[in-house]
Design a protein that fits this description.
The protein is an alpha/beta fold. The protein is built from 16 helices and 12 strands. It has an 8-stranded parallel β-sheet with strand order 4-11-10-9-8-7-6-5. The protein is globular, with a radius of gyration of 20 Å. The relative contact order is 0.20.
Length: 393
């Protein structure tokens, strides 16, 4: 077993072990990937205030997210194709999250189905919904999540139109992989992954295949999916989905203070400040850079979470200190899953929790609830260099 000291260690193993198309799927953004890069690099502009001669005993990273007790304010984000990163990937990630005491969020575009995850876990998980044109399918999907006792619905708002990700197009991304000469050559170097996938419960989209009559093969699945994202989604439709669900709702994909206000007005239990990991609108600001403005706008009206760019416990601390009540990790847990399966997800969570705990102590705090802007050194222009121009400018 290699010594794992940070998330980057897991990423290196992950890259060696997983087929290139699935590595690139996780480790890429849209167009020039500017936003994808800045999601992580902008965290580096924020410095930490070291404090000394403070009692560091009795520390705790425990908190709550939407009223749910968590061992630390970190949830596993919804990531499509997780079951292609490792055999039965969604099941393994959900089991690791349950054992660690953090929420797991299942993607609509998962390989393992809602029912698969429910059958293999005991703790309620969250379900992420993409809004699609097929209203009958969406209604049945919501009911399946209810039947599985999912405790929250995470509605993704920033994928009405699919952003172009050059690597996915060039790799011919599909589940299962299409056997082209290029793909076969790469798969021959990933034999351990291939052996495990032979025993996987599923190798296609489990929430779709078998639930849509028109899908008969991989090609029809791809066509159906590409045509289903709903470009007409508006706040009225979001409100109807919330009413249809009837339980706790998290609205994901908020990157603007005005949108945050609208989400709070609708009565969302939480919002996720997110740019889809830099995979949608390239050129958008990083989530950590827009977080202060959003907190100033709605901090007392709705619970705010943040994703996109978190690779360490220090990143988690910075988000919490700027006002977020929770964070989501996507790529960080995928690195662990692809590297070492369920144990790798646990390792990723352990790394992040240790970094969060140690950094919190060296900043002079003993509880994550006490973190605030007083723990940070933030550039004066960190959130103010950018201005939205009106028609009068």
């Amino acid at each position: 077993m290699p010594t794992i000291t940070n998330i980057e260690d897991l990423k290196r193993i992950y890259e060696r072990r997983v087929p290139r198309m699935f590595f690139d799927y996780a480790e890429s953004g849209s167009w020039t990937e500017q936003t994808f890069r800045e999601n992580t690099s902008d965290f580096e502009d924020i410095r930490l205030r070291q404090r000394v001669a403070v009692d560091m005993t009795g520390r705790s990273t425990a908190s709550q997210m939407i009223g749910q007790d968590v061992s630390m304010p970190v949830a596993l984000a919804p990531v499509g194709l997780t079951g292609m990163q490792h055999a039965d990937g969604e099941i393994k990630a959900a089991k690791a999250a349950e054992a660690f005491g953090v929420p797991f969020t299942l993607s609509t575009m998962s390989i393992n189905s809602i029912e698969d995850v429910a059958e293999n876990t005991t703790a309620p998980f969250w379900f992420q919904l993409y809004t699609m044109k097929d209203q009958d399918y969406v209604g049945r999907l919501i009911q399946r999540a209810k039947d599985a006792k999912c405790s929250a619905l995470v509605i993704t708002l920033d994928l009405q139109i699919l952003g172009q990700r050059h690597k996915d197009l060039k790799n011919g991304l599909s589940a299962p992989p299409k056997l082209t000469p290029k793909t076969i050559a790469n798969l021959m170097t990933k034999w351990a992954w291939g052996i495990e996938m032979l025993g996987a419960k599923r190798r296609e989209f489990g929430n779709i295949v078998g639930h849509v009559d028109s899908i008969t093969d991989t090609r029809s699945l791809g066509t159906w999916t590409a045509e289903q994202f709903d470009p007409s989604l508006d706040w009225g439709k979001v409100e109807k989905l919330m009413e249809q669900w009837g339980g706790k709702v998290i609205l994901k994909g908020i990157l603007d203070a005005e949108d945050a206000k609208m989400a709070a007005k609708l009565g969302a239990d939480a919002i996720v400040v997110s740019n889809h990991g830099g995979r949608q609108l390239d050129g958008a600001l990083s989530t950590i850079r827009v977080l202060p403005e959003i907190m100033d706008a709605v901090g007392n009206d709705v619970e705010v979470h943040l994703d996109s760019g978190i690779r360490s416990g220090q990143d988690v601390l910075k988000a919490l200190a700027l006002g977020a009540k929770g964070t989501f990790i996507g790529r960080a847990f995928v690195y662990g899953l692809g590297a070492m399966g369920q144990k790798g997800v646990t390792t990723a969570l352990e790394v992040i929790q240790k970094e969060l705990d140690t950094t919190m102590a060296l900043c002079g705090e003993r509880n994550v609830a006490d973190l605030g802007r007083h723990n940070l050194l933030v550039p004066e222009d960190f959130g103010g260099r950018w201005q939205a121009w009106s028609s009068n400018n």
